[in-house]
Amino acid sequence: MIAQLLPPPQTAQSLNPSVSHASSAQQHLPAPLQRTNYGSHIDPEMVDWLTPTSKDTPLSEIRARYSHDGYVWIKNVIPRSDVFDMREQYFQALSPTGLLSPDTGPREGIFNSHLDPTVHQGLGATPQNSAMQSLDKIHASKEYQDFLDHPDLRDWVRRLTGWQREAVLRRGLLRHNVPGSRCPSGIHYDQLFLRAGDPVFVTAWVPIGDCAADGGGLMYLENSCELGERIEKRFEAQQEKENMPKEERISAFNRHMGELGHLSHNAETWAKGDGLGKRWLVANYEAGDIVFHSPWMIHASGQNSDNFGRIRLASDLRFYEEGAKLDERWTRPFYNGDGL
């Protein structure tokens, strides 16, 4: 279990300033407005910056950051060219749907603003029928499956955890989010969707391209791992009381869960209530960055309001130590209708 491999939590003051604070230029600027799935803006007082970590930071401090915060956002892990190659392959596959702006290429991934964004949603919403087959193919493609095995990504998983060997769940997900669409990720922690395995994995969230803080990237609820675990225990108690069958208990879509398996889709009201007034942390992500986060870290995304019309594309990858009890349902590549 990663919690046993990492050092005990430290106070923020005990960590090196280079890891415990955002860049000096950024931390004095207000975070950009975040629009929820309901179209309203999150109270600016409820939004702050995610902490970046340089990959040359001492490993002990990187592990301490993960242990303390539930995440670590490491800059420039994967070569930008490799990330943009993946972006190009994805949007090349989807280009027949017409979602790309004329006179732009798949490597840029600029949305055609003349189209209805609700018709061109990706995973996490309802992709148009013409995109379904392409999404299945790209997830099963050699290019994407090789990306899951990228040596720099794998090396950092082992460095962060101390594992000798790791196993990746082949059901990685590529999610695109066009400007103006109503398909941001709802509020959740990842164990909700991987209940058939133990909560001992590490998620690597990889932006496939640059993604500004108002471009629909992930936002994290600060210091929320304990809250996520407490919510799951409450679900477990309800299921036990009702003697719910196992196949229902492990489903993120059982009768106790919200829309699409999420806790909520209103990031503003939920954070102020069930989220105990904790702030959402956002970031200007760049191609090559990786955010590693805990199974219990609560996160979501706002709507994509990118000024340049860039389509947000990112991949969610989960790693276990080899031999750990993993969620076998996630060992095959994604396909539409797999029920997960």
Automatic annotation (TrEMBL):
One Pfam short name: PhyH
SUPFAM superfamilies: Clavaminate synthase-like
InterPro entries given in the database record: Phytyl_CoA_dOase-like
Record-linked Gene3D superfamilies: q2cbj1_9rhob like domain
Superkingdom as given in the UniProt entry: Eukaryota
Biased composition (Pro residues): 1-10
Biased composition (Polar residues): 11-27
Chain spans, region Disordered: 1-39
PANTHER family, alphabetized: EXPRESSED PROTEIN, PHYTANOYL-COA HYDROXYLASE
Name of the protein in question: Phytanoyl-CoA dioxygenase
Organism: Heterodermia speciosa
